[in-house]
Amino acid sequence: MSPLPDLNKQTPIAVVAAGRLGSSMAIALTEAGYKVAAISSRQMSHREWLASRLKETLVVENAQTAANVASVVFITSPDAMIEDICSEIDWRSHQAVIHCAGVLPLSVLDRARVMGAETAGFHPLQTFPSSDSSTQLKNVSFATESLNPALFYWLWILATDLGGSAFKIESSQRAAYHASAVMACGLLAGLTGLAAEMWKPLGIDRDDALKKLIPLLRATIDALDEKGLPSAITGPYVRGDVETIEAHLEATSDNSEETFEAYRALAGASLHIAKEQGGMSDPAFERIKSLLSDKNTIVGNPCDLKNEGQ
Q1: For the whole model, what pTM was predicted?
Q2: Which residues of 194-230 are buried (b: 16+ CB within 10 A; e: fewer)?
Q3: CA angle 42, 113, 4 (to 5 degrees)
Q4: Distances (CA, A) of 215 to 21, 33, 186
């Protein structure tokens, strides 16, 4: 294990391949008192913007140039590019190389490890809508991984200094962790899109429907934050309202097979959480579970579920 220099706020940091995440992180690091020595971006217009925001930081096009002046290097490119970028840089011992991907194992940094550098993963559980989203790092959890205790501890402190918190993760756990994040973020947005498209028979297009659904989404997020689970779940599943659920299945099937399958799969997978509230009887639970698990209930042939259930 290569000895690292003392890691503290004065340790020179480089952020390479800075897009929305890297730029936001570099700004947040600087505001937290860390020394961001260099940052790289291939886009001239973005380099000019970075130079205007990070006046004490060397802003360059070449990732190698940025890495040369730093003891700790964050690679913040899209996941598919991380291993290639790592392989293109000549690393040195006494250097730490950190990727910020959620799903990728530490092995994507093996080129750096073979050359004597220490490696780590530091993934903020957050989205970054723009390059100026440094405030998005407040109250965020960071999935943190490193085989080097000193580097791991430094990242743990860094997460706190950025206004968030760290938790330990291993490479073998990353796929499940990242799938969870996508379910709570990207797939949630997609599900909301499907919900908005259900308004078409009302003569309301998806964009307008989304605006009408946003207050409901916000109230749901607030309930999740304030009450937790299962209390935040509302609707027919916590009541065991079989007839309403039957109507939903028919309506989603009328909309499209994809919408029906999404509704059925999501409701079925989360039914046990709704039951934890205690408002659903065991017979209702079994009836609803049967409705949701039967792939032939309605697919391809919208029908009267009340008749089918008799």
Answers
A1: 0.89
A2: bbbbbbeeeeeebeebbeebeeeeeeeeeeeeeeeeb
A3: 95
A4: 28, 37, 19
Fold of 13-172: Rossmann fold (3.40.50)
Whole-angstrom distance, CA of residue 73 vs CA of residue 17: 11
Q: Domain-by-domain residue ranges, the chain?
A: 13-172, 183-308
Q: What is the pLDDT of residue 157?
A: 98
How far is 310 from 305, CA to CA, in rounded Å? Answer: 9
DSSP state for residue 129 in the 8-state scheme: S
The whole-number pLDDT of residue 305 equals: 39
Report the DSSP beta bridge partners of residue 168. 144
Q: How many CB atoms lie within 10 A of CB 268?
A: 14
33-54 confidence digits (pLDDT tens): 999 999 999 999 999 999 999 9
CA distance linking residue 289 with residue 267, whole number of Å: 9
Does residue 87 or residue 2 have the better pLDDT?
87
For CA atoms 36, 40, 41, 45, the dihedral sign is positive
Rounded distance between C-alpha atoms, residue 42 and residue 22, angstroms: 13
High-pLDDT (> 90) share of the chain, %:
92
Joined tokens for residue 251 = 């309506």
Tokens of 294: 């039967």
